Each structure stands twice: as structure tokens, then as C-alpha cells.
């Protein structure tokens, strides 16, 4: 395929993926917005008022970036895992497999779908957060790049989960037992400086901590982690997961007999 | 003549040791209408899966219009359109989007994809349904949607895996006409079907696979020529209560106005008509019974089974 044909093939996958979640926006966009709104009301407003300042900010202001990032992470992952598994289950992944579209474009197309949903939900949650706290943008470039890279990373994670999944149970195991605990323990609701030294060290093993803090720096200008470490971890994981996803596609794991 | 498809010593062993293909060779010439037949589990779908890269082969060589799937897969894929046995589209997607997106996967720009989608949906009688979700289509419409989707990139080789399974006779006939039309325009077609009448009517060449081996690969004419007798159906002018006994021409009664008779190949029908006239039976029309391929198919498949059983 020529570069132009490849671009058209990529666009087609992205359009298909975006239309998929847009058609069912009541299931894909609305629920995370409502859930995050409840977090703002309960943790930010009711409980947060009892907690006091963190890094010189109100608790509500402090948790806004983490909650936005949590929505981006979970929705990016959920989009690709359900879309890819659905395509496998209903066999319409074969539409792409019989075509000359290269595997890397199939991976990139699904990931772009996850990115579109992750950022759409992130934007919706950000707009809702304005009702609860002022949203100052300390560094727009950091906000945008960290959100996009994190979304790409978790879209890749969802895709790999979708490749290996054989039943609907398999697509909920990782989000429930791995992703959610890591997100809650990734500094969404607290600064790791509030933890004892040992648990601060343990927290540094959690990659989500770097993403939440990178994003928080972009919005508030405060972070528990150096910015270069945030980018390093995210880009490193993307490189590893993209290569792994590509190898799986080339070998046809889970999709080709 | 250019070969549309060349398969050499193709083998497939599934994890667990099941040997689905035991080294098959098949050639399909450009422009052919080719039947790939075999009982369930014979290896037809595995063969199609390997050609279309949905199944990894264990060994052997496959080339589509000279493009080897090991060294030139993208070019080979561009030549092929696949209509699979099972519905494999996103059931919540509108009909039009399914076909347009498929064109996109082949690098066809969207305006051109829209034009082609309109053309094929109209030709296949689906244009009125273009905005409906695929799940709302009838079984026959879903089959036609898969044909439109397979044709939108205008492949030179169209592979249809049981395309008329479960569709009514009217739709089946219109699909036959459509397929004959695109074959006449130059598209090579490979068809698998359980309706042997369909293969006999449409296809010029045939391969029969059984237990992972090609047990027959010849032209339809040559295969049918092997039959040493033919069955004719006689439509009568007036009803008969019981068919007369004619030496050399055993008659079977289908109903009051229809008889069947087996005639040795090459023997004259004049004697038969003379004897029928003597019994006061007038024949208004005569036709071949179209189950000839079925008889041969069963002979070939049964023969193979018996030989294997004897050898084991």
C-alpha cells in the first residue's frame, strides 16, 4: 500500500472506532462524567472540606487533575479492550485482517479510538470540574501531552487485554483487579508525601503515579515526581506495549488459527 | 493462461495434532468459476482461511495472481474478496458504513468508496436499506451485504464460502445471476457450497476435498461425463395410475403426471418413447434430473472413506 492508501486505511479504522463509541455515548461518555461528578461532590466537597490544604491548594483543587486523569485512563483502556474483544467475538476484525492494511496501522487505529474516547471523557470531566473548582492551566503543553500519551498507553494496554481475552470475564479482570487499585493508589486522592517513607518508595513502583503527577503539574504546577521521570516512564511503557501489541498482531495471537 | 490461484502441497496441522490439510494442490485459472466441494470438516474453510490469511498454514505455498502470500501478502490480499460462511460484520453499524469502511481498508478514497458502495448496494438490492443497522437485515440481505462488501475494492478473485446457505430459492437464483454477471465481466470466482445443484449450474471446474486431501480436481464436464447413466424426468400429458413395466427402461412414478427413468449413456431415447406411446402415454416435456453431481460426489467421498477404513 502507498503512504496515501495507508493513511486512508488508518482514517477508516479511526472513523469506525469513533463512530462505535459515539453511537452509544449514553454508555461510553455519560457514566464516567456522572461518576466523577459524584467524586467531586463527596470527596472534594463534603470530605475535602475537613481535610484542609495540600501543597497550599484546597483538597478539591488538588484532586481535580487526578480525577480527570483517572477518567482518561479507565476510558481509554475500556474502549480498546471492549472494541477489540467485540471485533474478535463478532469476527468483524476479519474485515481488517483480510485487507492489505498493515498490522501497525490496525494497532494505531484501535489506539486512536481509545485516545478519542479517553480525551472526550477527559474534556467532559474537565468542563464539569469547573462547577466545583477553578481550573488554572499552569502549562498547557504538559497538560495536553501527558493526557494524550497516557491515553495512548492505556489504549495499548486495553488492546493487549483484548487480544488475550477469550470471554467477557477476561475483559473485566484487569480493570477491576489491576487498573482500579493502581489508579486509586496512584496519587489521585493524596500526595505521596502524606505517606510514611516506606510506602512512598512502594508508590514509586506504580506507573500511574507518574501520569497523575505529570498531569497535576501541568494544571496546578505541583507534583510529587520530576517531570522528566513522568515523560520517561510513559514513553518507555508506550514503546514496550506498542512493540508487544505489534508482535501479537503479526503472530495472529487470539485472532488467527 | 494466468493462474488466479496456485496452491502447492498445502498442509495445516492445528494445535492438538488435527491434520486438516494433508498436502493439497489446486490451480484455478483466471476467469474461472471454480467449485470447491467437500463434506463438513473436509478442509474447505481451512483452505479458504489460509488463502485469505485468516488461518496460518503449517507448510506449503499459496499464490494469488502470482503474488506469494509468504513474500507478497499485501498484493495477494488486494486481489481477493471474501464472502465468509458466517456473518462477520458489526451488527450495529449501518449497512452503508460497513461497505465504505471496507473500501477504506484497501486504501480507496472516501468519495470513490461512496460511489462504489452505492453501485454495489443498488446492484444487490440493498440501497433502500443503506442507513439501517446490519442486524435489522434479513438473512438473505445479510449475505448480499457481505457480497457487496467483498466486491467494493473490485477484487480479481472472489471467494464465496457457502454464500447461499439459508436463503430462499428466489434470492438464491438472483444471487446466481449476479455472480454469473460478475464472472462474465472477468472476476474469477471460487465457490464452496452444499447445494451441489448450485455448483453444477454455475461452475466450470471443480475440486473435491475430503479428509484434508483433494480426491478430485477436474472440469465439471469431465466429471459429469463419468456418469454412465442419466436420469430423465418425464412430464406427462395425462395422469397415469401406475407406470407400465418396460424392459430396459425401469420407470419410477413421482406423481400422477411425472415419471422418472434411468437411461444408459449413449443409448437412444426413441425406443423409450415408442414403448410409452404403445401404452397410451404421451410425454409433453423431458428434462435432466439435476442431481448428477450429487451422485458422483457421494461416490467419491464414500469411496475415499471406504478405502481409508480398509487401510486403517
Strand content of chain A: under 5%
CATH superfamily of the largest domain in chain B: P-loop containing nucleotide triphosphate hydrolases
Report the uncertain regions of chain B.
305-312
Beta fraction of the residues of chain B?
Answer: 25-35%
* CA gyration radius of chain B, whole angstroms: 23 Å
CATH architecture of the largest domain in chain B: 3-Layer(aba) Sandwich
Quick one: how many beta strands of chain A?
A: 0
Spatial strand sequence of the major β-sheet of chain B: 6-7-8-3-9-10
- Count the domains of chain B: 2
Main sheet record of chain B: 6 strands, mixed
Chain-wise SSE layout:
The complex is a heterodimer of chains A (257) and B (312).
Chain A: H1 3-23, H2 25-28, H3 30-51, H4 59-89, H5 93-97, H6 103-129, H7 140-164, H8 170-184, H9 197-203, H10 207-220, H11 227-251
Chain B: E1 3-13, E2 19-29, E3 33-37, H1 44-51, E4 59-64, E5 67-68, H2 73-79, E6 80-83, H3 95-105, H4 110-123, H5 139-151, E7 157-161, H6 169-184, E8 188-192, H7 196-202, E9 205-210, E10 213-219, H8 220-225, E11 229-236, E12 251-255, E13 258-264, H9 270-278, E14 283-288, H10 292-311
Parallel strand pairs in B: 3-8, 3-9, 6-7, 7-8
Antiparallel strand pairs in B: 1-2, 1-4, 4-5, 9-10, 11-13, 11-14, 12-13
Helix pairs in contact in B: 3-4, 3-5, 7-10
Describe the structure.
- The complex is a heterodimer of chains A (257) and B (312).
- Chain A is an all-alpha fold and 257 residues long.
- Chain A has one domain.
- Chain A starts with a helix and ends in a 6-residue tail after the last helix.
- The longest helix of chain A is centred in the N-terminal third of the chain and has 31 residues, at 59-89.
- In chain A, 49% of the residues are buried.
- Chain A is elongated and about 60 Å long.
- Chain A is built from 11 helices and no strands.
- Chain B is of the alpha/beta class and 312 residues long.
- Chain B has 2 domains: 3-224, Rossmann fold, CATH 3.40.50; 227-292, Alpha-L RNA-binding motif (Alpha-Beta Plaits), CATH 3.30.70.1560.
- Helix content of chain B is 36%, strand content 28%.
- Chain B is built from 10 helices and 14 strands.
- Chain B has a 6-stranded mixed sheet, with helices on both faces.
- In chain B, helix 3 crosses helix 4 and helix 7 (196-202) crosses helix 10 (292-311).
- Classes of the chains: A mainly alpha (257), B alpha/beta (312).
Amino acid at each position: 500500500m502507498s503512504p496515501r492508501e495507508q493513511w486512508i486505511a488508518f482514517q477508516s479504522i479511526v472513523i469506525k472506532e469513533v463512530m462505535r463509541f459515539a453511537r452509544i455515548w449514553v454508555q461510553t461518555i455519560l457514566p464516567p462524567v456522572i461518576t466523577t461528578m459524584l467524586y467531586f461532590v463527596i470527596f472534594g466537597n463534603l470530605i475535602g472540606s475537613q481535610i484542609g490544604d495540600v501543597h497550599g491548594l484546597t483538597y478539591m483543587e488538588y484532586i481535580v487533575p487526578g480525577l480527570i486523569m483517572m477518567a482518561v485512563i479507565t476510558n481509554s483502556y475500556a474502549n480498546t479492550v471492549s472494541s477489540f474483544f467485540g471485533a474478535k467475538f463478532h469476527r468483524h476484525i476479519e474485515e481488517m485482517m483480510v485487507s492489505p492494511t498493515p498490522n501497525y496501522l490496525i494497532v494505531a487505529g484501535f489506539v486512536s479510538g481509545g485516545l478519542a474516547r479517553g480525551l472526550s471523557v477527559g474534556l467532559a470531566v474537565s468542563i464539569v470540574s469547573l462547577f466545583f473548582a477553578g481550573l488554572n492551566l499552569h502549562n498547557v503543553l504538559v497538560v495536553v501531552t501527558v493526557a494524550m500519551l497516557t491515553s495512548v498507553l492505556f489504549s495499548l494496554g486495553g488492546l493487549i487485554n483484548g487480544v488475550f481475552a477469550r470471554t467477557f470475564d477476561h475483559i473485566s479482570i484487569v480493570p477491576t483487579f489491576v487498573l482500579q487499585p493502581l489508579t486509586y493508589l496512584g496519587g489521585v486522592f493524596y500526595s505521596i508525601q502524606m505517606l510514611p517513607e516506606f510506602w512512598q518508595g512502594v508508590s514509586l513502583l506504580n506507573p500511574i503515579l507518574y501520569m497523575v503527577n505529570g498531569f497535576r503539574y501541568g494544571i496546578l504546577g505541583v507534583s510529587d515526581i520530576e517531570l522528566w521521570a513522568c515523560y520517561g516512564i510513559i514513553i518507555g511503557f508506550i514503546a514496550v506495549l506498542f512493540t508487544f501489541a505489534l508482535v501479537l498482531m503479526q503472530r495472529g495471537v487470539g485472532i488467527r488459527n | 493462461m494466468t493462474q488466479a490461484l496456485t496452491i502447492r502441497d498445502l498442509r495445516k496441522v492445528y494445535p492438538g495434532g488435527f491434520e486438516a490439510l494433508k498436502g493439497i494442490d489446486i490451480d484455478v485459472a483466471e476467469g474461472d468459476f471454480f467449485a470447491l466441494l467437500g463434506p463438513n470438516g473436509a478442509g474447505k474453510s481451512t483452505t479458504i482461511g489460509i488463502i485469505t490469511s485468516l488461518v496460518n498454514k503449517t507448510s506449503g505455498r499459496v499464490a494469488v495472481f502470482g503474488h506469494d502470500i509468504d513474500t507478497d501478502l499485501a498484493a495477494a490480499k488486494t486481489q481477493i474478496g471474501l464472502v465468509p460462511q458466517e456473518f462477520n460484520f458489526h451488527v450495529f453499524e449501518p449497512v452503508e458504513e460497513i461497505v465504505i469502511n471496507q473500501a477504506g481498508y484497501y486504501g480507496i478514497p472516501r468519495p470513490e468508496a461512496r460511489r462504489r458502495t452505492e453501485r454495489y448496494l443498488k446492484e444487490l438490492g440493498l440501497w433502500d436499506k443503506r442507513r439501517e443497522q446490519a442486524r435489522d437485515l434479513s438473512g438473505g440481505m445479510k449475505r448480499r451485504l457481505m457480497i457487496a462488501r467483498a466486491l467494493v475494492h473490485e477484487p480479481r478473485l472472489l471467494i464465496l464460502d457457502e454464500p447461499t446457505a439459508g436463503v430462499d430459492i428466489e434470492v438464491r437464483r438472483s444471487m446466481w445471476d449476479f455472480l454469473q454477471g460478475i464472472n462474465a465481466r472477468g472476476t474469477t470466482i471460487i465457490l464452496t457450497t452444499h447445494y451441489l445443484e448450485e455448483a453444477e449450474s454455475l461452475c466450470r471446474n471443480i475440486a473435491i476435498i475430503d479428509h484434508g486431501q483433494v480426491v478430485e480436481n477436474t472440469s465439471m464436464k469431465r466429471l459429469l461425463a463419468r456418469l454412465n447413466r442419466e436420469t430423465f424426468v418425464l412430464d406427462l400429458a395425462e395422469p397415469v395410475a401406475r407406470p407400465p413395466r418396460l424392459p430396459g427402461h425401469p420407470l419410477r412414478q413421482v406423481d400422477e403426471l411425472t415419471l422418472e427413468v434411468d437411461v444408459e449413456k449413449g443409448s437412444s431415447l426413441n425406443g423409450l418413447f415408442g414403448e410409452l406411446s404403445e401404452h397410451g402415454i404421451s410425454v409433453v416435456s423431458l428434462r435432466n434430473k439435476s442431481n448428477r453431481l450429487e451422485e458422483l460426489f457421494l461416490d467419491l467421498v464414500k469411496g475415499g472413506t471406504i478405502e481409508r477404513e480398509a487401510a486403517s
